[in-house]
Amino acid sequence: MLEEFNLRQFISAFVVLFAVIDAPGAIPVILKLKRGGKTVLAEKASALSLLMFLGFFYVGEAFLNLFKLDISSFAVAGSLIIFIMALEMILDIDIFREKPDMPKDATFIPVVFPLFAGAGSLTTLLSIRAQFSDINIICAILANIVIIYGVIKMAKRLNLMLGNGFIYMLQKFFGIILLAISVKLFTTNITVLIEHIQ
Questions:
Q1: Which phi and psi angles does 96 have, rounded to 5°?
Q2: In the chain, at which end, N or C, are there fewer CB atoms within 10 A of the end residue's CB?
Q3: What does the alpha-carbon distance between residue 195 and residue 60 come to, in Å, rounded to a whole number?
Q4: Mean pLDDT on 187-198
Q5: Residue 147 neighbours by CB distance under 10 Å
């Protein structure tokens, strides 16, 4: 397997996943959650993201087939969650209402899923399997996990360095980016679903 490692393939797979995962773009979301009293653990988020990526990489299609789902349905569902999160960031509103029995740990939802290991990144992961060798994609996943860890670990420090005003501006900017990603995910995959139904 190691003899199949190709630096060019690794870099290409890394860049594609980095762009879709967009770990730096999650900083405003992580800070917003922490300001709201939520816990986001870097180690746990990294481990869960890695498990989701590797799990979906090897058994993703089989898992969806088990529930008679396709990738397009999965992507549409994920796009709706990302859309709601983007609205919260842009409009400064809380759509996901707090309840007394809600867990304070926000590491898995919404940070790992759908922010990092969401419909977009998981769908992309399946699509690049046809282009690159498994070892190159796995190395690209590991490299992105390191970045996810660093982003969560340094979120507060970056906030202090950059200031609340700059982070607020970033929140609006990345809110719009998330909104655009959700719209693209939705329109691309809803078209596929409509064509399939017809």
A1: -80, 100
A2: C
A3: 23
A4: 80
A5: 17
User: Do residues 115 and 32 lie in contact, with contact meaning Cβ atoms separated by under 8 Å?
Assistant: no
- Long-range contacts made by residues 7-12, C-beta under 8 angstroms, separation at least 24? 9/131, 9/132, 9/133, 9/136, 10/136, 10/139, 10/140, 12/131, 12/132
Alpha helix (H) residue ranges in the chain:
7-21, 27-35, 42-66, 71-91, 119-127, 134-162, 164-197
Mapping DSSP to helix (H, G, I), strand (E, B) and coil, where does residue 171 land?
Answer: helix
Assigned token pair, 49: 């993201």
DSSP letter assigned to residue 111: I
**Residue carrying structure tokens 């995962």:** 21
Answer yes or no: are the C-beta atoms of 52 and 113 closer than 8 Å. Answer: yes
Angstrom distance (rounded) from CA 65 to CA 137: 23
User: For residue 169, which amino acid is it?
Assistant: M
Q: Do 182 and 86 touch, CB atoms closer than 8 A?
A: yes
Query: Which pTM was predicted?
Result: 0.72
Peptide bond into 100 cis (omega under 30): no
Alpha carbon distance 126, 123 (integer Å): 5
**Segment 35-83, tens digit of pLDDT:** 888 899 999 999 999 999 999 898 877 887 888 877 777 777 777 877 8
105 - beta bridge partners?
39
Closest to 148 in 3D by CA, of 38, 28, 43: 43
